[in-house]
Amino acid sequence: MKKVVVYEPRPDEMPLFQKFADELGLDIKYVDGVLTPETAAEAKGAEGVTILGNYPVGQDTFKALSEAGVKYIGLRTAGYNNIDREAAKAYGIRFSNVTYSPYCVADFATMLILMCIRKAKQIFYRTNAQDFSLEGIQGREMRNLTVGIIGAGRIGSIVAKNLSGFGCRVIAYDIVERDELRGLLEYVTFDELLAESDVITLHTPLFESTYHMINRKTIAKMKDGACLINCARGAVVDTEALIAGIESGKIGAAGIDVLEGEEDIFHYDRRTDILGHRQLAVLRSFPNVIVTPHTAFYTDQAVSDMVELALRSLVSFIETGESSFEIKN
Ligand code: NAD
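Structure for Lactate dehydrogenase, as requested:
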């Protein structure tokens, strides 16, 4: 039986690990908590490990994995910017991500767009406090708006598809323009998108080229009162610039599912802790900002896809030395 080590198993993943382990003939060892230089030793005797995509895997962890005999990492996430690619290369450890249902994130982003333009946070808060007044909660109609999608890939293109029923204008900026999307959206330059969008929704990966793509300069080019949705990666947005944009009113609303410095916070119950993440505290305090803890991916279909494809990728690596999900270094 092929041995695989699962780091950070969540309770909702357990029945899926059991199901796919039986199907694929795997002997699974579960390690609570994240993969670190210390916990890497737990993988001794396994060629493959699977992890999630938030906690950094750096030089020291790769060294420890290599000493434990691990050759492959199968991420159960689409994002893999937590992997130090140079270190992976240096220790000859290959890794893969998963491409699960893009509908989960696309639907969530669509929901955040609607919640922001209809001021849902205020409506919920007030209703809970038995304040049923109308003042200050007037929304806008989608059909009157222009939505700008930055990164019209697997997820961004489904957002465009979702939006097609609302009658809004949909524009997109992407470094690769795809002819098959031209019926759903209109490609524009980055500056045109910033200037013309009432709502901007981010769907690029986090690369050097997209790091702090939304910053003080690019926010200054936006329409007054623009709404910003980030379901991509926290660091695509310069959080200080976002806060300044909201404080000045330049940004009229924001829906933030991902945030710089979220790693030890999102997906954990931290109710009784002093968080020490001031930007999160400030963002949460704004009446026009909805913060969700990196939950856009979290559907039944996506979690099943993530577990199944990460395990299949590891099996393929171990049996053939190849995986169609490999991120080539
Ligand atoms: P994808 O690769 O299919 O699409 C990304 C698109 O961005 C591509 O069309 C690409 O050409 C474009 N792009 C790349 N660099 C660009 C740049 N500098 N400027 C403009 N466009 C650029 O990826 P996807 O499956 O659609 O996922 C997008 C991102 O969503 C992931 O990388 C991940 O960071 C994020 N994500 C978030 C969650 C969540 O729960 N919030 C879940 C899954 C994925």
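The chain has a mean pLDDT of 96.
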